[in-house]
Request: fold
Amino acid sequence: MKILFIGGTGLISNACARIGIAKGMDITVLNRSLSHRFPHPHGTKSIVADNSNENQLSAIIRDHKYDIVVDWIAYTVEDIARDIRIFNRNVGQFVFISSASAYQKPPKSLVVTESTPLANPFWQYSRDKIACEAELMREYKETGFPITIVRPSLTYGEGQLPLVMNSWNHPFTIIDRIKRNKPIVVPGDGESLWVMTYNEDFAEGFLGLLGNPKAVGESYHITSEEVLSWNTLFEQFLGAIGLDAELKHVPVEKIIRLFPDFEGTLIGDKSNSVIFDNSKIRSLVPNFKCRVNWGVGIKRSYDWLINHPENQTVDVELNRILDRILESD
Reply:
Protein backbone atom coordinates (compact mmCIF):
# COMPACT_ATOMS: atom_id res chain seq x y z
CA MET A 1 0.00 0.00 0.00
CA LYS A 2 1.75 3.14 -1.26
CA ILE A 3 0.77 6.38 0.48
CA LEU A 4 1.47 9.97 -0.56
CA PHE A 5 1.37 12.78 2.02
CA ILE A 6 1.03 16.20 0.41
CA GLY A 7 2.55 18.40 3.09
CA GLY A 8 3.74 15.97 5.68
CA THR A 9 6.17 18.09 7.70
CA GLY A 10 3.66 19.69 10.06
CA LEU A 11 3.03 18.92 13.70
CA ILE A 12 0.32 16.33 13.00
CA SER A 13 1.41 14.97 9.64
CA ASN A 14 4.99 14.39 10.75
CA ALA A 15 3.82 12.27 13.69
CA CYS A 16 1.53 10.31 11.36
CA ALA A 17 4.42 9.68 8.94
CA ARG A 18 6.79 8.63 11.73
CA ILE A 19 4.34 6.21 13.33
CA GLY A 20 3.15 4.97 9.94
CA ILE A 21 6.71 4.06 8.97
CA ALA A 22 7.14 2.24 12.28
CA LYS A 23 4.03 0.22 11.38
CA GLY A 24 5.59 -0.77 8.06
CA MET A 25 3.69 1.63 5.79
CA ASP A 26 5.21 2.86 2.52
CA ILE A 27 4.95 6.66 2.84
CA THR A 28 6.20 9.35 0.46
CA VAL A 29 6.18 12.98 1.60
CA LEU A 30 5.77 15.73 -1.00
CA ASN A 31 6.48 19.36 -0.16
CA ARG A 32 8.35 22.37 -1.43
CA SER A 33 11.31 22.17 0.93
CA LEU A 34 12.73 20.19 3.81
CA SER A 35 11.59 21.20 7.29
CA HIS A 36 14.25 21.81 9.93
CA ARG A 37 11.78 21.69 12.79
CA PHE A 38 10.01 18.51 11.64
CA PRO A 39 12.41 16.69 9.29
CA HIS A 40 11.14 13.74 7.28
CA PRO A 41 11.08 10.65 9.49
CA HIS A 42 13.72 8.05 8.67
CA GLY A 43 12.24 5.59 6.19
CA THR A 44 9.96 7.97 4.31
CA LYS A 45 10.58 8.79 0.68
CA SER A 46 10.75 12.45 -0.29
CA ILE A 47 9.61 14.41 -3.33
CA VAL A 48 10.43 18.11 -3.51
CA ALA A 49 7.69 19.79 -5.53
CA ASP A 50 5.19 22.64 -5.41
CA ASN A 51 1.75 21.15 -4.80
CA SER A 52 0.13 24.29 -6.19
CA ASN A 53 1.76 23.60 -9.58
CA GLU A 54 -0.86 21.36 -11.15
CA ASN A 55 1.25 20.34 -14.15
CA GLN A 56 4.16 19.36 -11.94
CA LEU A 57 1.94 17.41 -9.55
CA SER A 58 0.17 15.63 -12.43
CA ALA A 59 3.52 14.57 -13.88
CA ILE A 60 4.56 13.10 -10.53
CA ILE A 61 1.35 11.12 -10.25
CA ARG A 62 1.85 9.74 -13.78
CA ASP A 63 5.30 8.51 -12.80
CA HIS A 64 4.43 7.17 -9.33
CA LYS A 65 1.23 5.26 -8.62
CA TYR A 66 -0.21 5.76 -5.12
CA ASP A 67 -3.00 3.81 -3.47
CA ILE A 68 -3.77 6.56 -0.93
CA VAL A 69 -3.24 10.33 -1.09
CA VAL A 70 -3.55 12.55 1.99
CA ASP A 71 -3.66 16.30 1.40
CA TRP A 72 -2.64 18.00 4.64
CA ILE A 73 -2.46 21.49 3.13
CA ALA A 74 -5.68 21.98 1.15
CA TYR A 75 -7.55 25.00 2.47
CA THR A 76 -9.79 26.31 -0.32
CA VAL A 77 -12.22 25.02 -2.92
CA GLU A 78 -9.61 25.87 -5.55
CA ASP A 79 -7.17 23.50 -3.83
CA ILE A 80 -9.80 20.76 -3.79
CA ALA A 81 -10.79 21.31 -7.43
CA ARG A 82 -7.14 20.81 -8.40
CA ASP A 83 -6.92 17.63 -6.30
CA ILE A 84 -10.06 16.23 -7.91
CA ARG A 85 -8.70 16.86 -11.40
CA ILE A 86 -5.41 15.18 -10.58
CA PHE A 87 -6.44 12.27 -8.37
CA ASN A 88 -9.94 11.26 -9.46
CA ARG A 89 -9.68 7.73 -10.84
CA ASN A 90 -5.98 7.64 -9.93
CA VAL A 91 -6.18 6.63 -6.25
CA GLY A 92 -8.08 4.17 -4.11
CA GLN A 93 -8.60 6.70 -1.29
CA PHE A 94 -8.20 10.46 -1.04
CA VAL A 95 -8.06 11.87 2.50
CA PHE A 96 -8.85 15.52 3.15
CA ILE A 97 -7.74 17.12 6.41
CA SER A 98 -10.56 19.42 7.48
CA SER A 99 -11.06 20.94 10.95
CA ALA A 100 -13.32 20.39 13.94
CA SER A 101 -13.76 24.17 13.98
CA ALA A 102 -16.14 23.60 11.06
CA TYR A 103 -18.79 22.32 13.47
CA GLN A 104 -21.71 24.60 14.28
CA LYS A 105 -20.86 27.76 16.21
CA PRO A 106 -22.28 28.62 18.61
CA PRO A 107 -22.87 24.93 19.38
CA LYS A 108 -26.42 23.86 20.16
CA SER A 109 -25.17 20.76 21.96
CA LEU A 110 -22.19 20.32 24.24
CA VAL A 111 -21.45 16.90 22.75
CA VAL A 112 -20.18 16.96 19.16
CA THR A 113 -20.62 14.02 16.79
CA GLU A 114 -19.92 13.76 13.07
CA SER A 115 -23.60 14.49 12.44
CA THR A 116 -23.36 17.88 14.16
CA PRO A 117 -24.09 20.51 11.46
CA LEU A 118 -21.20 22.33 9.83
CA ALA A 119 -21.65 26.09 10.18
CA ASN A 120 -19.22 28.70 11.46
CA PRO A 121 -20.10 32.31 10.62
CA PHE A 122 -17.21 33.64 12.72
CA TRP A 123 -14.12 32.19 11.03
CA GLN A 124 -13.28 32.26 7.32
CA TYR A 125 -10.78 29.43 7.75
CA SER A 126 -13.60 27.16 8.96
CA ARG A 127 -16.00 28.27 6.23
CA ASP A 128 -13.37 27.43 3.62
CA LYS A 129 -12.94 23.96 5.11
CA ILE A 130 -16.72 23.48 5.05
CA ALA A 131 -16.80 24.47 1.38
CA CYS A 132 -14.00 21.99 0.64
CA GLU A 133 -15.94 19.21 2.35
CA ALA A 134 -19.08 20.04 0.37
CA GLU A 135 -17.17 19.92 -2.92
CA LEU A 136 -15.61 16.57 -2.05
CA MET A 137 -18.93 15.03 -0.98
CA ARG A 138 -20.53 16.25 -4.20
CA GLU A 139 -17.76 14.60 -6.22
CA TYR A 140 -18.06 11.39 -4.21
CA LYS A 141 -21.81 11.18 -4.83
CA GLU A 142 -21.58 12.09 -8.52
CA THR A 143 -18.46 10.20 -9.64
CA GLY A 144 -17.50 7.91 -6.76
CA PHE A 145 -14.30 9.83 -5.96
CA PRO A 146 -13.13 7.80 -2.93
CA ILE A 147 -12.86 10.49 -0.29
CA THR A 148 -12.41 10.34 3.49
CA ILE A 149 -12.70 13.51 5.58
CA VAL A 150 -10.81 13.89 8.86
CA ARG A 151 -11.44 16.72 11.32
CA PRO A 152 -8.70 17.29 13.91
CA SER A 153 -9.39 19.60 16.81
CA LEU A 154 -6.57 21.38 18.66
CA THR A 155 -3.72 18.89 18.26
CA TYR A 156 -0.24 19.51 19.63
CA GLY A 157 3.09 17.78 20.15
CA GLU A 158 6.71 18.37 21.06
CA GLY A 159 7.59 22.05 20.82
CA GLN A 160 4.00 23.34 20.69
CA LEU A 161 2.29 25.06 23.63
CA PRO A 162 -1.30 25.30 22.33
CA LEU A 163 -2.69 27.65 24.97
CA VAL A 164 -5.32 30.13 23.93
CA MET A 165 -3.83 33.58 23.13
CA ASN A 166 -0.36 32.08 22.64
CA SER A 167 1.47 32.19 19.28
CA TRP A 168 1.27 29.03 17.17
CA ASN A 169 4.36 29.90 15.14
CA HIS A 170 6.31 31.18 18.14
CA PRO A 171 5.06 29.06 21.08
CA PHE A 172 7.92 30.17 23.35
CA THR A 173 6.13 33.53 23.57
CA ILE A 174 4.13 32.46 26.62
CA ILE A 175 7.31 31.30 28.40
CA ASP A 176 8.89 34.65 27.59
CA ARG A 177 5.94 36.42 29.20
CA ILE A 178 6.09 34.25 32.30
CA LYS A 179 9.82 34.80 32.72
CA ARG A 180 9.26 38.58 32.45
CA ASN A 181 6.49 38.40 35.10
CA LYS A 182 3.84 39.40 32.58
CA PRO A 183 0.24 38.27 33.23
CA ILE A 184 -1.23 35.56 31.01
CA VAL A 185 -4.45 36.52 29.22
CA VAL A 186 -7.31 34.01 29.61
CA PRO A 187 -10.40 34.86 27.52
CA GLY A 188 -13.65 34.94 29.49
CA ASP A 189 -13.95 33.33 32.90
CA GLY A 190 -11.78 30.37 31.87
CA GLU A 191 -14.51 27.85 32.71
CA SER A 192 -15.41 26.84 29.14
CA LEU A 193 -14.44 23.23 28.43
CA TRP A 194 -11.83 22.24 25.88
CA VAL A 195 -10.05 19.19 24.51
CA MET A 196 -6.32 18.91 23.72
CA THR A 197 -5.09 15.99 21.60
CA TYR A 198 -1.47 14.80 21.48
CA ASN A 199 -0.28 14.25 17.92
CA GLU A 200 0.90 10.67 18.47
CA ASP A 201 -2.54 9.74 19.81
CA PHE A 202 -4.20 11.34 16.81
CA ALA A 203 -1.91 9.35 14.52
CA GLU A 204 -3.06 6.02 15.92
CA GLY A 205 -6.66 6.77 14.99
CA PHE A 206 -5.81 8.40 11.67
CA LEU A 207 -3.59 5.60 10.36
CA GLY A 208 -6.35 3.10 11.03
CA LEU A 209 -8.50 4.83 8.42
CA LEU A 210 -5.97 4.48 5.62
CA GLY A 211 -6.81 1.71 3.20
CA ASN A 212 -10.04 0.87 5.00
CA PRO A 213 -12.88 0.72 2.43
CA LYS A 214 -15.45 1.42 5.16
CA ALA A 215 -13.91 4.89 5.61
CA VAL A 216 -14.65 5.95 2.02
CA GLY A 217 -17.43 8.51 1.78
CA GLU A 218 -17.28 9.17 5.54
CA SER A 219 -16.04 11.89 7.88
CA TYR A 220 -14.36 11.45 11.26
CA HIS A 221 -13.05 13.62 14.04
CA ILE A 222 -10.17 12.23 16.07
CA THR A 223 -9.67 13.81 19.50
CA SER A 224 -8.87 13.15 23.10
CA GLU A 225 -11.74 12.65 25.50
CA GLU A 226 -9.95 14.35 28.40
CA VAL A 227 -12.15 17.41 28.90
CA LEU A 228 -10.69 20.28 30.96
CA SER A 229 -11.57 23.92 31.52
CA TRP A 230 -9.16 26.55 30.25
CA ASN A 231 -8.40 27.45 33.86
CA THR A 232 -7.39 23.85 34.55
CA LEU A 233 -5.37 23.66 31.33
CA PHE A 234 -3.36 26.72 32.34
CA GLU A 235 -2.95 25.56 35.94
CA GLN A 236 -1.74 22.10 34.89
CA PHE A 237 0.59 23.69 32.34
CA LEU A 238 2.20 25.89 34.99
CA GLY A 239 2.44 22.97 37.40
CA ALA A 240 4.06 20.75 34.75
CA ILE A 241 6.77 23.29 33.93
CA GLY A 242 7.33 24.43 37.52
CA LEU A 243 6.61 28.12 36.98
CA ASP A 244 4.11 30.60 38.41
CA ALA A 245 2.16 33.26 36.55
CA GLU A 246 -0.83 35.48 37.09
CA LEU A 247 -3.86 34.46 35.04
CA LYS A 248 -5.76 37.55 33.97
CA HIS A 249 -9.33 36.89 32.80
CA VAL A 250 -10.52 39.27 30.10
CA PRO A 251 -14.01 39.31 28.55
CA VAL A 252 -14.01 37.84 25.05
CA GLU A 253 -16.06 40.80 23.83
CA LYS A 254 -13.39 43.21 25.00
CA ILE A 255 -10.62 41.28 23.23
CA ILE A 256 -12.55 41.27 19.96
CA ARG A 257 -13.52 44.92 20.29
CA LEU A 258 -9.85 45.83 20.55
CA PHE A 259 -8.59 43.25 18.03
CA PRO A 260 -11.35 41.95 15.74
CA ASP A 261 -9.07 39.34 14.14
CA PHE A 262 -9.49 37.19 17.26
CA GLU A 263 -13.19 36.64 16.53
CA GLY A 264 -12.53 33.49 14.50
CA THR A 265 -10.25 31.72 16.94
CA LEU A 266 -12.31 32.72 20.00
CA ILE A 267 -16.03 32.97 19.19
CA GLY A 268 -15.54 30.68 16.20
CA ASP A 269 -13.61 28.12 18.20
CA LYS A 270 -11.87 28.16 21.59
CA SER A 271 -14.28 30.12 23.76
CA ASN A 272 -16.98 27.49 23.19
CA SER A 273 -17.33 24.44 25.40
CA VAL A 274 -17.00 21.21 23.42
CA ILE A 275 -16.91 17.49 24.16
CA PHE A 276 -16.20 15.18 21.23
CA ASP A 277 -17.87 11.79 20.93
CA ASN A 278 -15.28 9.50 19.29
CA SER A 279 -17.60 6.52 18.86
CA LYS A 280 -17.38 6.68 15.07
CA ILE A 281 -13.59 6.49 14.80
CA ARG A 282 -13.53 3.70 17.39
CA SER A 283 -16.11 1.74 15.39
CA LEU A 284 -13.54 1.51 12.59
CA VAL A 285 -10.35 1.60 14.69
CA PRO A 286 -11.31 -0.29 17.87
CA ASN A 287 -7.89 0.08 19.49
CA PHE A 288 -7.91 3.88 19.19
CA LYS A 289 -7.36 5.45 22.60
CA CYS A 290 -5.65 8.66 23.64
CA ARG A 291 -2.95 7.70 26.12
CA VAL A 292 -1.09 11.00 26.61
CA ASN A 293 -2.93 13.26 29.03
CA TRP A 294 -2.47 17.01 29.08
CA GLY A 295 -0.10 17.16 32.05
CA VAL A 296 2.28 14.66 30.44
CA GLY A 297 1.99 16.00 26.90
CA ILE A 298 2.53 19.66 27.75
CA LYS A 299 5.62 18.79 29.82
CA ARG A 300 7.06 16.97 26.80
CA SER A 301 6.34 19.99 24.62
CA TYR A 302 7.96 22.38 27.08
CA ASP A 303 11.03 20.17 27.54
CA TRP A 304 11.48 19.97 23.76
CA LEU A 305 11.48 23.77 23.51
CA ILE A 306 13.96 24.10 26.36
CA ASN A 307 16.26 21.61 24.63
CA HIS A 308 15.96 23.36 21.25
CA PRO A 309 16.97 26.99 21.88
CA GLU A 310 16.87 27.72 18.16
CA ASN A 311 13.08 27.47 18.43
CA GLN A 312 12.78 29.83 21.40
CA THR A 313 11.53 32.68 19.25
CA VAL A 314 9.08 35.30 20.47
CA ASP A 315 6.11 36.90 18.72
CA VAL A 316 6.81 40.56 19.48
CA GLU A 317 3.56 41.75 17.91
CA LEU A 318 1.45 39.33 19.96
CA ASN A 319 3.20 40.54 23.13
CA ARG A 320 2.27 44.09 22.18
CA ILE A 321 -1.34 43.05 21.60
CA LEU A 322 -1.58 41.22 24.92
CA ASP A 323 -0.14 44.18 26.80
CA ARG A 324 -2.63 46.48 25.07
CA ILE A 325 -5.52 44.19 26.08
CA LEU A 326 -4.37 44.18 29.71
CA GLU A 327 -3.83 47.96 29.82
CA SER A 328 -7.17 48.86 28.23
CA ASP A 329 -10.19 49.79 30.33
The first strand starts at residue 2 and ends at 6. Residues 22 and 43 are 9 Å apart (CA to CA). DSSP finds twelve helices and 15 strands in the chain.
